[in-house]
Amino acid sequence: LGLLDCSTEADGAAAVLISATPPVGAVIRIAGSAVASDTVALHARADLLQLDAVRWSFERAMAQAGVERSDVDVFEVTDPHAIAAILAFEAMGYAASGTGHLLGSSGAIRPDGSVPVALAGGCKARGNLLGALGVLQIVELTQQLQGNAPTQVADARVGLAQCMSGIGSTVATHILVRDA
Fold this sequence. Notes:
four-stranded mixed beta sheet
């Protein structure tokens, strides 16, 4: 990894309001949430390029939410290094192993693509907020699902936030759904 392949660490904060009282406007519901862990020591893993905790948390959150892979309209994944999002999309089954890099060159990650991701820029644009990153992902997805994000995915209804620590040693996946 070169210097421009890595985000800087940044200070920041994010907050969400979770309430049983319906808000004005679109209701965004946390439909699924799962956390999974893998071996911290990379050399002890069966395959260095397989992020098993990403796959495990993804599968559990999707099952809990009752949605299919093709139902997800917009994504926020941890991308402190260029390779992190690529490996995450491979682990979630959106690209075959070794082909995740083609999602970028094919345009799939654009707002009108099949896997629009990091539309506010991700870690490379704003820096890696470490402790606040997972909450910021929820904020950015909520803006998308409410239809008021600066770079908007048309009619986004289901969003996926995936926050990873280490190199996929602990991963939390949340599925957000805009109720009709």
